[in-house]
Amino acid sequence: MAIFTPPGDMEDYRKPQVSSSTATDPDEPSMRSMLLEMEEHQQFPNSCKKCKLPKPERAHHCSVCNTCILRFDHHCPWIHNCVGHFNHRYFVLFMSYLVFAAGYYALFGWRPFMICLDFNQIEWPYYFPRPLFAFSVILAICMGLAIGALCAWHYYLIFTAQTTVEFYNNYYDKSVCKQQGEIFVNMYNFGLWENYKRFFNICEQYPWYTVLYPVPIPPKGTGRIFEKCEEFYMLPEPRQRAHLIAQQESQDIEDIKDI
């Protein structure tokens, strides 16, 4: 699902808009409705210098896909797709299942693997060829460690309400705030458990155990606007405005750098 689920982009807004009398789908995206939505929730609506389309908050331009991706995390060559708002959940669960499977295989294959390494024992009681089995266990351990580290990194981002791109931007903003004697506030951070629930869309309709199921569950929200935490609104209005402008400046820099 991480491969075939679109991450969410702005390409639908390039299509010519039909009139309300001929429109058949009430949920079809409209440029006008999207702009009104952005102006209502954002003080400074931004636009992409490459797509020539409005750029929602947390969206970034992907030079590989040549479009702006909603809540862009990164472009993954292994799934040949961007990881964004609508498929980030499936990407994290895919890594979780893979790490669990690799650990399960390595754990229950450890005893045969030790027998495999005992060259004094010529007899091999298993059907699977001895060299291939040793290679498969070593491969499972290496993949489990490598993907496990990446999976742990993404769970850290989930619990702190960040994407990979936002982590580096926030790291820079933290250093600037520290130099100025101010406290940095991540405006999307609602706390560990609340961030986890928001990412996996845990609610009455989708209980916590649905995270364990490989079933399609939509993310929370449209990916164009995001609720801000209470700590952000407690900041003075100039600080709020400066934080929003800094976020847009980082988006513009990434357009130039082709991140």
Report on this structure:
- With 259 residues, the chain is mainly α.
- It is 46% helix and 6% strand.
- The chain is built from eight helices and six strands, in the order αββββββααααααα.
- It has a two-stranded antiparallel ribbon.
- A hairpin with a 4-residue loop joins β3 (60-62) and β4 (67-69).
- α3 packs across α4.
- It is elongated, with a radius of gyration of 23 Å.
List the helices and strands and how they pair.
Blueprint: H1 31-41, E1 46-47, E2 54-55, E3 60-62, E4 67-69, E5 74-76, E6 81-83, H2 88-108, H3 110-117, H4 130-159, H5 164-179, H6 192-200, H7 230-233, H8 237-257
Antiparallel strand pairs: 1-2, 3-4, 5-6
Helix pairs in contact: 2-4, 3-4
Q: Quick recap of the structure?
A:
This protein has helices at residues 31-41, 88-108, 110-117, 130-159, 164-179, 192-200, 230-233, 237-257; strands at 46-47, 54-55, 60-62, 67-69, 74-76, 81-83.
Order of helices and strands: HEEEEEEHHHHHHH
Q: Structural class, judged by helices and strands?
A: mainly alpha
Cα-based radius of gyration, to the nearest Å: 23 Å
Q: In which order are the strands of the major sheet placed?
A: 1-2
Give helix % range.
40-55%
